[in-house]
Amino acid sequence: MTAGPGERRRSRHRCPGARRERVAVVAAQGALDFTAAERVLYALDEARPQETGAAVLDLRQVTDIDSVALAVLQSGLGRLVEGGVRTAVADPAGRLVLLPGAGEQDERTALRPFDSREEAVAWCASGLAD
Questions:
Q1: Cys staple from 125: which of 20, 34, 97, 112, with CB 3.0 to 4.6 Å?
Q2: Torsion over CA of 39, 90, 110 and 2, rounded to 10 degrees?
Q3: Who's near 10: CB < 8 A, 6+ residues apart?
Q4: Nearest alpha-carbon partner for 88 in 50, 130, 59
Q5: pTM (two decimals)
Q6: Three-class SS of residue 118?
Q7: How many CB atoms are closer than 10 A to CB 89?
Q8: What is the pLDDT of residue 53?
Q9: Which of 11, 19, 9, 12 has the alpha carbon at shortest distance from 126?
Q10: Three-class DSSP category at 57
């Protein structure tokens, strides 16, 4: 897992670089079980300064997610969204099936899946105030 302040690559979604740097990004890789899913959520919470309100989980390098890890991630990401955190998942393989109703608070906070980390970061950053 790696955590970073966000991506600096260009995107179709334009937003100031300062906002992009306030998006917490955590990348997971390999097979995820319960313990790994808990570590991912912890890293996501720790990487996100409380005032930013934006987080991206990058699952592009994940090879497998067992059913318990899937439930843990769905629940943890749902709690972030319910707490008003603009949350996105880079998951081109569609491994993380979003639960019905999860993250449907409003357009600003809804949990969104994306094919790339760049798109996910850009979407999260676009909702942050300058």
A1: 20
A2: 30
A3: none
A4: 59
A5: 0.77
A6: helix
A7: 23
A8: 75
A9: 19
A10: strand
**CA–CA dist 36, 43 (Å, integer):** 10
CA 33 → CA 40, 44, 46, 50, 116, distances in Å? 10, 16, 20, 27, 23
Averaged pLDDT, 57-78: 93
The pLDDT value recorded for residue 130 is 63
Q: What gap in Å lies between CA 60 and CA 42, rounded to an integer?
A: 19
Q: What is the pLDDT of residues 11-28, one digit of tens each?
A: 334 445 667 778 899 999
CA distance 128 to 13: 13
Q: Which of 1-10, 22-31, 69-78 has the lowest mean pLDDT?
A: 1-10
